[in-house]
Amino acid sequence: MKIEGSLFLSFAVMLTICRVEVAATGLLPPESSPLIRHYYKVHNTCANVEPFVRQQVKALYDKDKTITPKLIKLLYADCMVNGCDASILLDGDNTEKKSPKNRGLAAFAVIDIVKKVIEARCPGAVSCADILNIVVRDAIFFSGGPSYPVFLGRRDGLQSDAAWVDLPSPSISWETALAYFTKKGLNMQDMVTLLGGHMMGRTRCSNILDRLYNVSNTGKPDPTMEATTLSYLQKQCPKKVKLGQSNPLINLNPDNPTHKFTNSYYSRVLGNKSLLGVDQQLLYGGSDAYDLTDEYAKGIEDFRGEFAYSISRMGGLKVLTGNKGEIRLNCHVVNKP
Ligand SMILES: *[C@@H]1O[C@H](CO)[C@@H](O)[C@H](O)[C@H]1NC(C)=O
Ligand SMILES: *[C@@H]1O[C@H](CO)[C@@H](O)[C@H](O)[C@H]1NC(C)=O
């Protein structure tokens, strides 16, 4: 518990430092500025939303430890595409949820359960976008990750379109990935840090088959992959996945089968043991990316603080506030006029 206190402090200090830099360097996305801590307490619309959510997430996490990586992915899929407006939660024929790029998304039920409880306690008060951000914060905490303040006051978007989904593929090059993050308002450090989300969770074999058998159409495995990792993964993911055969799910971080918060993702990058091409490229992203990877591999405390910070920055991308958007009553559908 002592550790949490000091982490919280270091994050608060870090935020203060960065606030000072904001004006000069534009470090925080400008859209995050309207968000505040304890928004629902300040506005007296749902003072206890955070304890309510935490209680629900605790119960759900106790039943299923994989909710954390799923929720982080959900937040990423929401915030990177048209901002953190819960548009990923909307149902419909041509919604973001229906994009083939979002096929693997899960944990929607977590949001539904929490939203139902919050609606019973504080009807029409708390946005789905804020609930998603609080739930992610709490799930990270229960997985052994940092405890950090969550900034609130987002409203929910009114539209969702599969065509907006521009999420990059897992075998993207470093340059393209960085250009993508930069376009969204994040920077190199955020990217290196947020890729650390691959410390836990699962992926489909189809995402790494090219690296295992035919990298860049050479007909050979990726020569940069460490040998025992390669043979281990080739066993997990056979070359020929016949039609109708399942596309196996494998742990993104084989060192972390229980999906805890860890920095071993970064040691694996340094050891050429990453699964996804985009992860392994941290080694080749230039000296700053390398130094950060090395720093995180050596010190989990640094990683904890920076992960909290970059998740918060991502959670502040292009948010709707004031009279924009709405507070959705049901996260699956926009309110009736
Ligand atoms: C590798 O991929 C390319 C392009 O998809 C394909 O033409 C080629 O036959 C593959 N090579 C092997 C050995 O599977
Ligand atoms: C990782 O691969 C690079 C070449 O791609 C090599 O220079 C480096 O020594 C390897 N590191 C380890 C720990 O094997």
Automatic annotation (TrEMBL):
Removal of H(2)O(2), oxidation of toxic reductants, biosynthesis and degradation of lignin, suberization, auxin catabolism, response to environmental stresses such as wounding, pathogen attack and oxidative stress. Ca(2+) binds at residues 78, 81, 83, 85, 87, 96. Residues 34-335 form the Plant heme peroxidase family profile domain. This is Peroxidase. Disulfide bonds join 46-122, 79-84, 128-331, 205-237. Its EC number is 1.11.1.7. It is an enzyme of class 1 (oxidoreductase). GO terms for cellular component: extracellular region. Belongs to the peroxidase family. Classical plant (class III) peroxidase subfamily. Residues 1-24 form the signal peptide. Heme b binds at residue 198. SUPFAM superfamilies: Heme-dependent peroxidases. GO terms for biological process: hydrogen peroxide catabolic process; response to oxidative stress. Transmembrane segments: none annotated. It comes from Tagetes erecta. Binds 1 heme b (iron(II)-protoporphyrin IX) group per subunit. Binds 2 calcium ions per subunit. InterPro entries: Haem_peroxidase, Haem_peroxidase_sf, Peroxidase_pln, Secretory_peroxidase. GO terms for molecular function: heme binding; lactoperoxidase activity; metal ion binding. CDD domains: secretory_peroxidase (cd00693). It catalyses: 2 a phenolic donor + H2O2 = 2 a phenolic radical donor + 2 H2O. Substrate binds at residue 168. Keywords: Calcium, Disulfide bond, Heme, Hydrogen peroxide, Iron, Metal-binding, Oxidoreductase, Peroxidase, Secreted, Signal. It comes from the Eukaryota. Pfam families: peroxidase (PF00141). Its cofactor is heme b; Ca(2+). It is found in: Secreted.
